[in-house]
Amino acid sequence: MIEIDDATTIGQAFFAACARYATHSLLAVPANPARAYDPEGREITYAEAADTVRGLMAQYRAAGYGLGHRVGLLLESRPEHMLHKLALNSLGVCCVPINPDYRPRELAYLVDHARVDLVVVLASRLETVQAALAISQHQPPVCVLEALADAPLPTPATPPQAGEPVGDTPASILYPSGTTGQPKGCVLSHPYELAAGHWYAHQGGLGTVREGQERLYNPLPLFHVNASILSFYCMLLSGG
Predict the structure, then answer these.
(1) With the C-alpha atoms ordered 211, 28, 69, 59, is the resulting torsion angle positive or negative?
(2) What does the alpha-carbon distance between residue 51 and residue 66 come to, in Å, rounded to a whole number?
(3) Measured on CA atoms in the order 23, 240, 6, 99, is the torsion positive or negative?
(4) Per-residue pLDDT tens for 166-210?
(5) Radius of gyration in angstroms for the set of CA atoms belonging to the chain, rounded to a whole number
(6) Helix crossing, 79-90 with 10-20: angle to 10°?
(7) Segment 154-164 mean pLDDT
(8) What is the spatial distance between Cα 29 and Cα 8, in angstroms, rounded to a whole number?
(9) How many CA atoms lie within 13 A of 99 on its CB side?
(10) CA torsion through residues 180, 183, 189, 195, sign
(11) CA 160, CA 91: separation in Å to the nearest integer?
(12) Which phi and psi angles does 36 have, rounded to 5°?
């Protein structure tokens, strides 16, 4: 398995795993003819993920994104969410997942509270983002996922901070349900996310994770901690 410490960043762990488990499947979308994307299913190997992430890193870097920026992702639970997160985190950008069930006012709150520098959104969700920005004070640029191949990313309003991501660099800001008021943004660092997956991978017993052999099916949404962090990094660090 990929070993980590308090200084390991997500980019370091990801590319180490891609070198070690290149031909293994990292992400799998089960076949579902009724689903709007990948109806026949899809498998993405570690090597393929590394190529995609490097390409996305180049796009974000060329547009001026880097350490200290925050990018909101409204990509539902598609594999693109994780690939963009890995690319952003590798550059030192903090990922802010957006609940696709948010109403415009809830999304406007997230935009104002997290002060994201960019929103990347599916074309089918663009109307919701536009409605939210019509009532938010903060006005980040918006990029439609499907247009990424044909148009450059909008540039951020401020330049990135100097340097590279380190252990305590924020990797995600997650917004749980606000049952006692507005949801609080939970800031998770690179070591926090990796340590969660490392802990999960080493529990043993009925939950023993065998290196390079596991396929973990998780129906939970990627805007919460279980699927996008606990389960994902358990598989990433163990070659599953």
Answers:
(1) positive
(2) 19
(3) positive
(4) 989 999 999 987 667 788 899 999 999 999 999 999 999 988 999
(5) 17
(6) 120
(7) 95
(8) 28
(9) 21
(10) positive
(11) 10
(12) -75, -15
Backbone angles phi, psi at 48, to 5 degrees: -65, -40
Chain position carrying tokens 């805007």:
223
Rounded to whole angstroms, how far apart are CA atoms 14 and 100?
26
DSSP string, 213-225: T------S-TTSH
Burial 225-234 (b: 16+ CB within 10 A, else e): bebbbbbbbb
- State pTM to two decimals: 0.95
- Residue with structure tokens 């299913």? 41
Helix, coil or strand: residue 182: coil
Whole-angstrom distance, CA of residue 132 vs CA of residue 199:
38
Q: Is 65:71 a contact under the CB 8 Å cutoff? A: yes
